[in-house]
Amino acid sequence: MTCRRCRTGAGKHLILLREEDAMEPEEKVSVHGGHSGQFCNHAVDSLEEIVKAYIARGFAWAGITEHAPGISQELLYTDQREAGLTPELLYERFGRYMVECRRLQTLYAPQIRLFAAMEIETYSGYQLFVPALIEAFAPDYIVGSVHFVDDINFDYSPEMYHRAAVKAGGIDRLYLRYFDQQYEMISLLRPAVVGHFDLIRIFDPAYRQRFEHPEINKKIRRNLELIRHLDLILDFNLRALAKGADEPYLTESILRLAHDFGIAVVPGDDAHGVADVGNYFADGVTRLKRYGFTTEWRKPVAG
């Protein structure tokens, strides 16, 4: 039998996963999930198929958090540009997403509580663009994410990450810019959920040591203090495990700080297709319980 965490043969990881898989968490939820191939170029399957998977896998509630439409042709995701999409087409598609999500919300209300939400970006102009999107589409809540630093989509590939680091003046400076942009976004938009707080580590094998860098650690603490002050939710994003990482976003040191600060942390599968729904949920619950977090999950509400 193969261990899902390390992709090797049976061993100590397998024993741990068997224990975790045998657990029955109080309630299955996803505060950040539900990307579908119907409305996202780097996802698969229809939104209804994904919703049915949440129901079949026993979820009590799920936030469907599709990406906001792009602000300009230059700042689209690479896969969107390659598909020949434009900001106008993406805006229209997001409108269809909201209509479909509301339909499914009503249709499946007896079986699951769905949130029709939106994951936003922090590229140039977002300060006016995102509030306009919120007014136009009235999502149930927003997930505040940072995938762009200084207008470079750093998490798309190692090459893009390197470009972002060079532009910032090195990896340490990239981290500092990331956490400054995140702080600005949280202060301005007050998202109900802060998405994958430490995504900046994605292509940095030395991230654990880097988080201890005095300047970087100071900004992490500052951002967490703001999240606590605003009483927001941190996304415990399990998709990192599906991509081969040995811990979710949040890393252990930040998870400990979040607990010390009394911040609500809620699992998000960040599903990009039916096969992703609920992945590593038991693992995530085990980790959260280990650090003393409650599993009476807070539901997100719009600010």
UniProtKB/TrEMBL annotation:
InterPro entries: Histidinol_P_phosphatase_HisJ, PHP_dom, Pol/histidinol_Pase-like. Its EC number is 3.1.3.15. Gene3D superfamilies: Metal-dependent hydrolases. Keywords: Amino-acid biosynthesis, Histidine biosynthesis, Hydrolase. Residues 35-237 form the PHP domain. SUPFAM superfamilies: PHP domain-like. Pathway: Amino-acid biosynthesis; L-histidine biosynthesis; L-histidine from 5-phospho-alpha-D-ribose 1-diphosphate: step 8/9. It is an enzyme of class 3 (hydrolase). One of its GO terms (molecular function) is histidinol-phosphatase activity. GO terms for cellular component: cytoplasm. GO terms for biological process: L-histidine biosynthetic process. It comes from the Bacteria. The keyword Cell inner membrane does not apply. Transmembrane segments: none annotated. The keyword Amino-acid biosynthesis applies. Pfam families: PHP. It catalyses: L-histidinol phosphate + H2O = L-histidinol + phosphate. Belongs to the PHP hydrolase family. HisK subfamily. This is Histidinol-phosphatase. It comes from Desulfofustis glycolicus DSM 9705.
